[in-house]
Fold these 3 entries.
Entry 1:
Amino acid sequence: MKHTIGIIYSTVDGHTHKICKHLHKQFQNAQIESELYAIEAFNQDISSFNTIIIGASVRYGYHNKNVIEFINTNKENLNQIKTAFLSVNLVVRKPEKNSPETNPYFIKFMNKIDCKRDFIDVFAGKLYYPAYPFFDKLMIKLIMVITKGSTDTKTPIEYTNWDRVNSFGNKIIKNIQSPTKK
């Protein structure tokens, strides 16, 4: 039986797209069909997918409201298929906030949606001051000072644990290959 995964992402600086694109390639390498969409460009029928993965980045403590609206609008269809949610935020770089159960942004996000969740995870993002507009750079630097993060405005830092991203993808692959196990 053919299994198709739809990967829908919302990104501000492109890193959530990079993570979702990595998952897309991982599924293709496992010979599982997947399609990748920016949330703004998604115009497919959700029921044409067996699994939907929704990836969203956090900016200033919030996921894009379009993601929450999309999930709540489509929850009936999402509840009929396998669903996966992933959040990308810099707080995940801290060991005490690097799980879905301890990440405050992800917890807040999950409380705003009323949808079945088969797979969830949080991933640390990328910090790259030169790419940010002046105000964002200033605000992110302030947040990083408060949270004891990097304030080096010249060097990009990618905090993403790619082994963890691979593990998330592998859980989904294993579920597809033997659907009775999660």
Entry 2:
Amino acid sequence: MAIDFWTSALVLGVVEGVTEFLPISSTGHLILTSGLMGWGGDKVKVFEIAIQTGAIFAVMLIYWQRLWSTVRGLPSQPQAQAFTRNVLVAFFPAVILGLAFGKAIKAHLFNAHTVALALIVGGLVILWAERRQQGQARVNSVDEMSALDALKVGLAQCLALIPGTSRSGATIIGGMWFGLSRQTATDFSFYLAIPTLIGAGVYSLYKDRALVAWDDAAWFAVGTVVAFVSAWFVVKWLLRYVATHSFAPFGWYRIVFGALVLLSSELGWVQWVD
């Protein structure tokens, strides 16, 4: 029992770190993985959200120079002020909609058919967006983004409230659709992830604090650390990848994975709804 318990925490940490920043839906992968391992319940859901903080710390480490220069420049530098404004503008739409409709979404959309459909449709959108991106991008740097550009990306992030959509997929592909270059959309998606994932983790732990005891700290720590390490490698790889490659392979992967999710539910491999 103890071996299965710790192994499950380790595996989910890897899955979170690997999938969080790729446009393939970490939620879908976590649900499928925990279901295949027979892990379920409200505490596991809290665990899956909490370990996102490990993944986001990896992003903060990779981008620490830009983040530190922004903090130092906030009192006097227009560039730092504009950058902070844009991240906040993009952050709040998902916060507002999440607080307003979070319970309804969990009650009605956390099922295999919704996740599978979101994965497949998202895959098709990625393929479409990549074909559309053949022309010259309008915005080629995060510092060139306007508040309106940021708001559009923030509205795209709201689609990630639908399980299976992928937060990174919605923001990156949405950014490309609105005229951001592939690299700019990817960078801004990472910056936007910082307040979004930290906020979601803190809110979930506070709201469901009655489900978590001090005895759980060790396995929460294992999942968080593993998510941090695996996310660090994935983000470093992705930044190199987007410089010379398209996201089309991720689109095809989503379509295949969506079909697998649907099949797993129909055959009873995974219990998707507790």
Entry 3:
Amino acid sequence: MAEKIKLYDATKCIGCRACQLACKQWNDLPAHQTKNTGSYQNPADLQPNTWLLMRFQERETNTGEVEWLFHHNACMHCTDAACVNVCPTNALFHTKYGTVALDQSKCTGCKECVAACPFNIPRFDPKTNKVSKCDMCFSRLERGMEPACVKACPTGALQFGDKNKMLRVIKERFLALGSKGHLYGDKFLGGTHVLYILPEKPDVYEAIPANPKLPEPLVVWKDLLKPLSLLVPGIALVGAFLHYLIKGPKNTISKEEGGV
């Protein structure tokens, strides 16, 4: 099965939030009361019931005018996903499409994935003691359908397809944009399965980490402690085998109890 890529082209985005609504509808995510924070962005952040959020960022241009920067904020579906690496129950897992899905029935609410994600994506719900996040509409992919957010996008800002095909689309788009586009997501954590084309450099965006990195404790666990922990059962087995060769099988009846 070919890897899939979702492309968000911010240069085509009009901030209509059709993707955000489609995500809620397909995944049957309930609405919650929100507060006006002085922005068109609503809610203010990702939540257990909001897996995809359109972020609205206002900024002043060099000419003194105000312009919008839009940002499609959801799981990046990393190839080397920190959340999958730290999940103790395998509730988070890689699918055959290269995306990262979540089996909530296995989630124990340990919140290890929340702490590990360099993009600040998973959200913990204290009411259910579960974590939730975008799974790239895994149920739709299994039916040969594209993600709901992509299906709902009216401008082509969101596209989805096989990795090789989408890389060709990105190349053609950059030829059209010239020097005005910036690709984001291809160089982090083995590459992500959500890629952005941005009109500005990533560090201009408030909610986009310009250089996402794994937390230091996770690096230590992944590179040193986890491989060591995998060796421990093998070492114990070798030790038991050597003991058997040297000492022989354990005699369970002692001489004092009438053993020979």
